[in-house]
Amino acid sequence: MGSKKIKKGGRNVRREPRQWRARQTVEAILEAVVRIVKREGIGAVNTNRVAEVAGVSIGSVYQYFPDKRAMFIALHRQHIEEIDRLIHRTIVECGQSSLEGMICGVFDAMVDAHAKDPAYSSVIFSEIPHRPHGTEEFAVRLHGVIRLALAAKKGEMPRGLDLDVAAFVVGNIVDALAHGAAMRRPRGVTIEVAREESVRAMVGYLRGRGRGRRLACEDRA
Amino acid sequence: MGSKKIKKGGRNVRREPRQWRARQTVEAILEAVVRIVKREGIGAVNTNRVAEVAGVSIGSVYQYFPDKRAMFIALHRQHIEEIDRLIHRTIVECGQSSLEGMICGVFDAMVDAHAKDPAYSSVIFSEIPHRPHGTEEFAVRLHGVIRLALAAKKGEMPRGLDLDVAAFVVGNIVDALAHGAAMRRPRGVTIEVAREESVRAMVGYLRGRGRGRRLACEDRA
Amino acid sequence: MGSKKIKKGGRNVRREPRQWRARQTVEAILEAVVRIVKREGIGAVNTNRVAEVAGVSIGSVYQYFPDKRAMFIALHRQHIEEIDRLIHRTIVECGQSSLEGMICGVFDAMVDAHAKDPAYSSVIFSEIPHRPHGTEEFAVRLHGVIRLALAAKKGEMPRGLDLDVAAFVVGNIVDALAHGAAMRRPRGVTIEVAREESVRAMVGYLRGRGRGRRLACEDRA
Amino acid sequence: MGSKKIKKGGRNVRREPRQWRARQTVEAILEAVVRIVKREGIGAVNTNRVAEVAGVSIGSVYQYFPDKRAMFIALHRQHIEEIDRLIHRTIVECGQSSLEGMICGVFDAMVDAHAKDPAYSSVIFSEIPHRPHGTEEFAVRLHGVIRLALAAKKGEMPRGLDLDVAAFVVGNIVDALAHGAAMRRPRGVTIEVAREESVRAMVGYLRGRGRGRRLACEDRA
DNA sequence: CATGAATGAGTGTTCATTCAT
DNA sequence: AATGAATGAACACTCATTCAT
Q: Is C6 close to B5, i.e. CB distance below 8 A?
């Protein structure tokens, strides 16, 4: 009954917060990290400062996060989870839509995820040390969910289409363009135009004349 | 170095190397950074170690780089420059090629830049604190050079095409897919397939029926 | 630390000690600085050594002093405070004394403050970078307290005497002569003689025939 | 005949500059030190920066100064020399003056020396590490020259007066008050008043009833 | 003699982490 | 559970000094 520290899987996990207060503490900590990152860049994030901004003691930070990276990993996971959730919802909502509708939905979901808080997403992606498998984890999750979305519209796409290849292509495009549309559009490109063109590119690709004539890449030097 | 604080005396700018010896030193330093990053990750980069690996004294490091970040910035610039150069060369080489040829060339150039040294590019892109304008700088440069490449094949594309929009779309796609192709292909997607499909997507988009029928995005919830 | 440069994140202010332990730490640190200064000169003072001599970790030093200078500033303040206290005590103790008694008392207080630990005072005054207002702060404090002492014996001094002028003159004399008496007497001048003569000079000045005949400065070239 | 480095006394002396160019270099270096000290404080003085500001190479600095301290020592010596010269001149000029005239002259000489460039003198005195014998050297020189000045007016002072004691007292007073008058007068004390009062104090002391009645110091607690 | 590239011991400072209270 | 004082390895960076050119 003496409640000692209980490691769950063994994998650097501390006691899950059971109490209401505990959840609040955890959230305060993660919010503090985000606040600092947004205001001063990731370089300004250090555990003591996080504790201060969160209004808790440094000891409490270590009560819930075994080390500094754990906070970033938690944040990263949250972000992945959110995108996952957004796209899953889109898949459901677009059950009756055309392929275009689905792609639009997915694209918008991504833009939302990024645009809601550009500075934050930017940081999550470009500054957080998502070492070692962070990046892959995101890519894998995205690939999976995009594959799911495409599978739902398989009827509208050419027979021979390899879903994995398509998900790879569309996943990368949607991520890059949503990111780009939300955060670094060149002058004169509105977000609506970016969206329309992005979707056109993806749909065009997916509807493409399947096993069309070979590409004429080889005619160059 | 948490808060904003003021330094004491003098120069924030280090001399540009004038003598032959000096150039060698600078190169040795940058190479050392790359070596460490590739072997042990960016976390293992510290100025003293850089000096050691470069075979110069720590003083020499600071003779040419005002601070640690400066080394990364220099590397970042180098990388941008290299991609710029590669694509410019492609533009020239594909002067007589079709649109497909050009896009293939650009894509391959990007893959080359990334694949030659995946760990390194990955780090340059995802780990280096390219605060504040680093990322934009790359995006801007890429946009510019892609625009140039497309302009060279304007004849093969629909009349109404807005070059800036097209460059934005193609630039993002080529970067994301080349990156993805070089570094995180899902099982079963070969690099050749990735290339072919990527090019197909871009060319399809560019040749697309221009101002074709409106997309049916709005048929969803 | 040559040029003006900006620091990154957070706090420039260290917490005031709250627990008992903390006060002890702060004292140990300041004492360590004094010990090192006295034994090896100010040049031997470096933060790591201070921590070592104080028997605390370097981290603890920075817990209470934002930077190296802060330790010296604290010491400087302590010294000013002590002289202030000593002279205030003298004023009280000499409440019934004559003007001579008061001046003697003040002089002795100054000598005490300096002689108790000549090397240390010397360092506090001549070596500590009491930039920017350190020096003035001392002069101002001394002026104030000397003025107080003189005011207590106003009856023994000529009517027209301007207390500020007198405090300025006496303050400078007492400081210089006490300092000199304690630390750089020429051969053949005992501390008693130095004291007697110093006091004679000050009392003579203060009792001086007030608005006596003009000084004959102007009879020179 | 191979002109090797020739140490003169053995005491850290490098070849004295013989050529015109060399003198200019030395002066440029010392001026650079002063400029830096005045503009940014002594903390900003470092040999490389001195070379830069002086417009010479760091190698040239070491051609004429064996180490960093040597520059400060040279400056210190210059300052002492100047005061010496000024007071010697005063002694001559006041050959026919009264004691008051002489004291006035000495005081003015000191004020001049300090007031000409207050920031500089202040720094020379309070910031330069006049370790180990710097301070004494100044005190000794000042004592000597003041003694000389007083000796010239011995006739106007009481018989029993010990010249060494008098020079000690007057030397300290004149230095402190001239310094104070030039650099930290309290509000409401003009430099003229400071001068008049300072001189009154010194002359009063010197003319004082010599071995007058004992001071009543001992009537205090 | 002058130059300035190179050196490297030394120092100030940070910050993740522990643990007594 | 929470607190926050304490720790100390690690690091960024400085600057007096040397020496090849």
A: yes
